[in-house]
Every structure is written in structure tokens, then in C-alpha cells.
Amino acid sequence: MIVVFGSLNVDLVCRVEAIPKPGETVLAPRYERMAGGKGANQATAAARAGAETLFVGAVGRDAFGEEEAETLKREGIDTSALARVSEATGCAFITVASDGENAITVASGANRLAEASHLAPVWASSPSALVLQMELPFEETLIAAREARERGVRVLLNLAPVPAGVDSASLRALLAASDVLIVNEHELAETAAILSVAGTDADDLADRLAAETKLTVLATLGGDGALVAGGDGTTERFRAPRIEPVDTTGAGDTLCGVVAAGLDAGLSLGQATERAVAAASLACLSFGARSAMPKTEAIDSFLAKGHA
Fold first, then answer.
1. Is residue 300 flagged as an active site residue?
2. In angstroms, rounded to a whole number, what is the distance separating the alpha carbons of residues 254 and 163?
3. pLDDT tens per residue across span 191-212
């Protein structure tokens, strides 16, 4: 079983020709409401990839919160530890350009009141992994990671977004309580800079970061796939299939959830990453962060056709 401690949001999505520049206003013909939040997205990806999944977070005592909780339940996700709090349910404002690129602003709302103490009832279930992101309060995320570590539960940390203003000591404390660090190229560079780690390219930087932190680093590379570095001077690359992306919004969350599901099923990190890269590619072929996430059968079919 996988436990995801993370954010849940309502996504309001606008589609435009190009992401507006600072100070620029662009018009969109309409907007769409979708289910979102990095935590809930990753839980959905894991569940669709076949893992028993439990989601822990916080929603408001409002219609959005109840509706989003029901959405997770329909995916087969256990929401028994989901807290209802006084703040409004989180909301993300997403702009998607015609080339599939996106820009996102998140109003955290209820996510700010999520607490690591909400995890207390789930440890008895002996989960295989705790999946974390950075859309909840930093201290609560750190406490959750440490509690998982104390119980021998593997911690997968998706350092997204990299916390604004975080200092090296605080970041090192969180990384020390984690097992696998999952970042994209920008987050890799930001993390390395905070820790004063330098490298010549993504492979070298990921390997040096892995050596510095004693973590396994999984770095996503957009259309170039992903790499895994263990700090021993070598990296393993996982090629992404060539596709024409429609919407990249949920690709990273898909990869995180499918990696966790693969590890839960007994795959090696390399095998889980290969599967997750294929799933993330599939998620780019349709609109929506969560609605585009593939199920196990679609991932299997995609891989069987040689798209790996």
C-alpha cells in the first residue's frame, strides 16, 4: 500500500495561444474546472497504475472539498484520513498554451492546515512507501518524512515546487529523511544551488547531488525522458517516446505516482521508472492533469508496442 501525504486542489484551466508575459493580459474563450493538487494527482496516478492507495491531506468544509473527496473515492483511493478544516479548499489557476506548455498559480487554502498528525491512523497498515510533495507546510512534510523513516517506510520526495527561501540546513534535514528524490531539470538545478553542488550537465549534477545527499535522484527531463543517479559516478537514462504533446500539466505527477506503484509491486527503481516515463508520455496526449492519467492496461499496451 502507498500513502500519499499531499495537496488537493480544484483546478481552473484556461487555454490560450501563448503563456502571458509579465504585465500582459490574454483572453481565453472559456475555462474548465478539473480535479487537481500534486498530492491528489499522484495518488490518482498510483491507483490507476494498480496500487492500493491512501490519501492524507486537508480540504475545506465546502462543496469543492466534498466533491473532490468523492472524486478520489471513485478512483478507489482511501480517504478515511482526509481532514476537513476551516479554510476553503485549495484552488489552482492553470494557463495552458497551444504548444502544451503551462503556467500554474496555486492558492493553498486548506492545504496550509494539513498536519503530519493526520497520518497517525495509517501507520498500522504498514505502507510500502510515503509519497511527498512540497505544496503542504514544510515542517509538516518534514515531520511526516521522519515518522515514515522511523517506521522503515520508504520515502519518495517530489521536491516540487522547491520551497521559496528554504535554507540549506532545512533542506538537508528533509533530504536526510528521504530515500528517493524526484525532481525535474529546473528543480534539480535549484536544489543543487541551495546545497552548493555544481555539475557540468543534468547527469553530472544529479550524480553529484546523489553523492552529496546519499539519496537516489530521479530527474525528469521532459521530452528526453528521465535519469536515475545513485552517486557512484554513473547514471541510467530512460528514453521517452516521441510524441506530440497536447498538455504537459500532469506528466510529472503521473511519473511520481507510477514510480511509487511500480516499487509497491516489487519492481526495481529502474523498471518502475521505465514504466513511469511511458505513463507520463501517455498523460501528455490529452487535456487535464488528472483526467489524462493512464490506467495499467493503457501503460501495458503502450509498452508492448515498443514505446519505451
1. no
2. 21
3. 999 999 999 999 999 999 999 9
